[in-house]
Amino acid sequence: MQYGEHKLKLEKFFESLKAGETVLIEHDSKSVPVHSFYSLTKCTGNMRSLVDDFLDTLYIYKVHLELSGTDTSKFEDLQVIKIGGVKSVGKIVGKISSRGGVILRREYQMIYENAIDDGSLVINPVLGIEKLLILGSSRLEVLETLAEISSRLGDRRRIAVYFVDKSVLKTGEFNPLSIMEFLSTTVVNVEKRGRVYTFEVLKSINPELDGKTYSYDLDVVE
After folding, report:
1. Could you tell me if 82 and 88 are in contact, meaning their C-beta atoms sit under 8 angstroms apart?
2. Residue 61 sits in a domain of what CATH number?
3. pLDDT per residue over 45-90, tens digit each?
4. How many structural domains comprise the chain?
């Protein structure tokens, strides 16, 4: 199978997502799906991309892609809400401290509303939120963050796609992965076997996606 076929299958998955969805793409630290994030930013059509970048995760994705030989010049056009960190990528529409708590959530909501409310559908990749979750000062603070995520479920102005490293979540005192899986409309598990990344749709509100598997081979990635 050539890269184009892999690309079409993966992009078909992203293009099948529905307005208002909260999508969870879970992976471990050895199977970070940077190429799928790249595909997501390329297949949005007329949709704007608004990236939530926690603690320089977008910068890490960008460097990994560049070192693999991928052209990341498109990243400079991405609108980005930056939460913590020091490395800026894309067009920063708002910057917030990673201190957490009520103040962060209020600041984020203001920036989010200003960035999203123009009448067009926005694809909203969220990178590195697991870092914030394990830094939560209490279980209550983590649950409040998850409640904030849940409150935007069904917001038809956007499609939210959370890329979450479940290996990181396991290091915290409280692992919220099962709650994130419950509130998400589509859950995808990513595994790397040799040079092939496999995307298994564990659940989806879209019957066309539910239970399907997608993959791409690093040997044929452009």
Report:
1. yes
2. 3.40.50.11570
3. 678 899 999 999 999 999 999 998 999 998 999 999 999 999 999 9
4. 1
